[in-house]
Each structure stands twice: as C-alpha cells, then as structure tokens.
Specification:
Order of helices and strands: HHHHHHHHH
Radius of gyration: 28 Å
Distance between the termini: 84 Å
Helix content: 55-70%
Number of strands: 0
Largest sheet: none
Strand content: under 5%
Oligomer: single chain
Shape: globular
Structural class: mainly alpha
Number of helices: 9
Length: 259
C-alpha cells in the first residue's frame, strides 16, 4: 500500500500559509494577531493619564522656576515668592507619585499624585496663601498704606534686607529638610507606606523601625509639617504661617490618634 500523503494545494490554504509566513517575516506572530484576547487597562493606572499628570507637573515646575528667576531680576518683583510656591507644590506632588512608583509599585496609581484626594481644606489653604502674598505686595500698599503689614522676619529678626535674607534662608532650609524627610520616609517604608490611614493590617505589612524610622515615629508627617511652614516663611505670609501651623498640628495629631 502506498503511504505517500498529498499536500493541500487549494487556493485558500496557499493564501493562509503566505499570510502566516509574511507575518513571521515582518516580526509578527500570526497567532497573537488573530487572538481575540485583549488585556484591559486599569483606569487608575492608565499610562496616558499618568504621563499627562507627570508632564503637566513638570511643565508647571519649569515655568514657575523660570518665572521666579525672571522676577528676581532688578527691580525685584515680590511676586517671585508666589511663583516659587507654585513650583514647590508641583515638585511635591510629582515626587509623591515618583517615589511611590519606585518603592511601592502596587500603590502607584493616579491617586498617588495627591492632586485631588486631600480634601477641600488643602486647596483652600494653598489658595489663601497665594491671596495673602498678592494682597500684601499689591493691594495693601495701595488701598491700606497706613497699615503696617508684618512679615515673619519683622517679628523675629532685625528689619531690613538682612533680616529678610536670613528668614528666606531659614524658609528654604525648612522646606528642603521637610521634603527630604518625607521622601526618606516613603523610601524606607517601601510597600508599608500608604497615603490613606489603614485600619486593618494587610498581609505582609510590618512595623518599620529602620532608617529614618529609628529617629522619628512619623517622619512623613514631620516632613510635610515643616515643608508647609517653610513655604509660608518663603512667601512672607504671617497670617498663613500661623494658620498652617495650627491646622497641620491639629490634622496630624488627630490622624496619629486614629492610627
């Protein structure tokens, strides 16, 4: 008996074989191309949404920094402080996501930018800080020239340019120490760090006692507290400096108690 098999030379088979060969020749897998399975993208981790927010924050930081340097040129415009404040805000929110993505990938969602999850009080506080800065430097001298508007340096340091320069250095030191402390807290805590208060222990969660946690029990709170006060010292906001101190102290005290 002849066991020789005959090849299928029908047009449809030849076309299918040609198509498959072409896909492989071009670097494609025909099986993948024809697969009906499509992996769904989690809206909270949408690459386009994450990239857009990171881009806009970077753009805001660059524009704010450039504008601040421009306004510092003689004759110096005091609004460089407001522009600097917007720049520090942009850097803070970008770092919140970036550090989370590096050291706590499971929590690297859109909410990690902390752009909308801090509540209305957070947005109101920053808006009032900008309003006070603009009012003190523009509206007050025009409409209330008889009122002496104190800056933090006027109360604690000798008046004049020397006092303001020293207070600016203090403000930047507070801001940098605060930002560095919070960043280190997120790095050393790793996957144990969470922007939301956790009321139940998750699997794998441990009490962090190494790194910066050896010296501070709540370094992320400590860092944000001094970062916030530093921004107001730089802006020269006496009212918001006191307000930030009281509100942040109360907020973190209540949060620590709930933990």
């Amino acid at each position: 008996m002849d066991s020789t098999s005959t090849a299928d030379t029908s047009p449809s088979h030849q076309e299918s074989a040609w198509t498959t060969a072409t896909h492989h020749a071009e670097g494609y897998d025909a099986n993948v191309l024809s697969s009906p399975t499509i992996t769904a993208i989690d809206p909270k981790r949408s690459p386009s949404a994450l990239a857009l927010r990171a881009f806009l924050l970077g753009l805001a930081f660059g524009v704010s920094l450039t504008f601040s340097l421009f306004l510092l040129q003689p004759p110096q415009n005091p609004l460089w402080r407001a522009s600097c404040f917007l720049g520090t805000l942009s850097a803070f929110h970008f770092l919140e996501y970036y550090i989370t993505a590096l050291y706590n990938p499971p929590a690297a969602t859109i909410s990690a930018f902390l752009l909308t999850g801090n509540g209305y009080a957070y947005n109101i506080a920053h808006t009032l800080a900008l309003v006070e800065c603009v009012f003190r430097n523009y509206a007050a001298p025009i409409y209330y020239p008889e009122v002496k508007y104190l800056q933090p340096c006027d109360a604690l340091l000798p008046a004049g340019e020397r006092g303001r320069a020293i207070w600016l250095m203090v403000g930047f030191a507070m801001l940098l120490v605060g930002q560095a402390t919070r960043t280190l807290a997120m790095i050393h805590a790793g996957t144990n760090f969470n922007h939301l208060v956790q009321f139940r222990k998750k699997a794998g969660h441990v009490l962090v006692t190494h790194g910066i946690y050896r010296w501070l029990r709540h370094p992320s709170y400590f860092g944000f507290f001094w970062w916030g006060l530093g921004t107001q010292v730089i802006m020269g906001n006496m009212i918001c400096l006191i307000g930030y101190a009281l509100v942040l102290w109360r907020f973190f005290s209540n949060r620590i108690e709930s933990e």
